[in-house]
Design goal:
With about 170 residues, this protein is mainly alpha-helical. Helix content is about 45%, strand content about 10%. The chain folds into two domains: about 120 residues, no CATH class; about 45 residues, no CATH class. A three-stranded parallel sheet has the order 1-2-3, with helices on both faces. About 30% of the residues are buried.
Amino acid sequence: MKRLIARNMRHSTLENAYTEDQDGRFVSLIERPFKSVAWGANHNWGELQARRLKNEGENPVPHYWEHVMWVWGQPDMDAFMALMPKVTLNGHMQNMTVPFLITHGANDRQIPREYAYQSRDQAVNSPHLDFKLFTDEEGGVEHCSADNMEPVKSYIADWVQDRFLAMER
């Protein structure tokens, strides 16, 4: 029932209630009623790119580097890697003053679990901070729960609804 209610909310409400972790810098600066969810907590994406280049080399997946350079508007690998130290939530999470849920898969092989812990540990001013690591028994252990999204989607929808209901009390 909770999941159904959350999914039937107006799109703009859900859009304000759910944001991916890359928007964490924006969310950390707002002061109106808002909620934030990190699904696959990618706290330090820039650092991850340096690791990926070192560990996986030229082709972690086909066309990976061409794709991310295009997404970030960088003309070449040197420009892309020069930008990456800025792509982090370090120095921003302490400004998070809204309810915040972090979910992460225990077997996420794309985003290290340590990044989920960094977001959790640095969000010291969130009035309602929840952290959920999905295990093999629960499902949703891979990156963004690609192996089984339903348990995580339901958990997130229930959490968002519970935060809205708490606002009404």
